[in-house]
Amino acid sequence: MPDFTDLPDLALRTHGGSVVAASDESFAEKEALIRPGRPGFQAHTFGGKGQVYDGWETRRRREPGHDWAIVRLGLPGVVRGVVVDTAWFKGNYPPHASVEAVAADGYPSAAELERAPWTTIVPRTALSGDAEHRLAVDRDERFTHVRLCMYPDGGIARLRVHGEVRPDLSVYDGLGLDLAALANGGRVTACSDAFYSSPGNVIAPGLARHQAEGWETARRRDGGNDWLEIRLAARGTVVLAEVDTTNLVFNAPAEIGLRGRDGDGDWFDLLPRTRLQPDTAHRFRVRQAPATHVRADIHPDGGLARLRLLGVLA
């Protein structure tokens, strides 16, 4: 069975997530929960509130109750599992935690969310210190927010919310959109190689700040070429391909070709094999035909920062 952590982190800050409210953040800020990357730590680094932690930490409770933080998912969708990471919290981690979720229309305030009808997706679960806790979720509803509850108080370094992106594409009626974008429901379903970085990065929101935020393969020695396949957000017609090799100065592909497929049909050419330049954002008009999947072949190897497939829903 595939690991749910292979799915996108719907809450990640670089995917548009936000920690909109918390019961308390006296020792360490709530925003750290959804930062990208592993939590850091430097011993004997003290500020005015004590040891500095890369995570969310609340004060010691002296009254009944528990602490909580509400996260707006940058990518609304179906949650398949969460990771509650207590990295570096050894004498101050919470003994238990639970996770709730809700689907809220529009752009509710923190106060409105507190009154929302929350659903428990991870029951109260025992935690240990300085450890990743991978907790599977068996629900098929679409959610827009999650609430992390810890009992009674303490520190949690990161919260990862992995799942399948399910956006509301009705807002694009009559308009064009990026059919490949992760935020719109696109997903990389296969690739030839992911030695240096994930192919899923090419459809992530925003621009890549450095090579690790794109897709980069190992050096090929067999005469073949590297490739990736994208399941589009929905069946649509691609009009323009944006192929971005930014930050790839000495390891950009020499050429790229794009092919499309409609359902289980045969692959057809969208963009013939075309020369690329290093560290450059390219834009190419492509053959227009309905497709549900697109395959990008890079020759012979290298990487891409981003791939945008702009078009219209079929």
Automatic annotation (TrEMBL):
Signal peptide: none annotated. Gene3D superfamilies: Galactose-binding domain-like. Keywords: Hydrolase, Purine metabolism. It catalyses: allantoate + H2O = (S)-ureidoglycolate + urea. Pathway: Nitrogen metabolism; (S)-allantoin degradation; (S)-ureidoglycolate from allantoate (aminidohydrolase route): step 1/1. Belongs to the allantoicase family. This is Probable allantoicase.
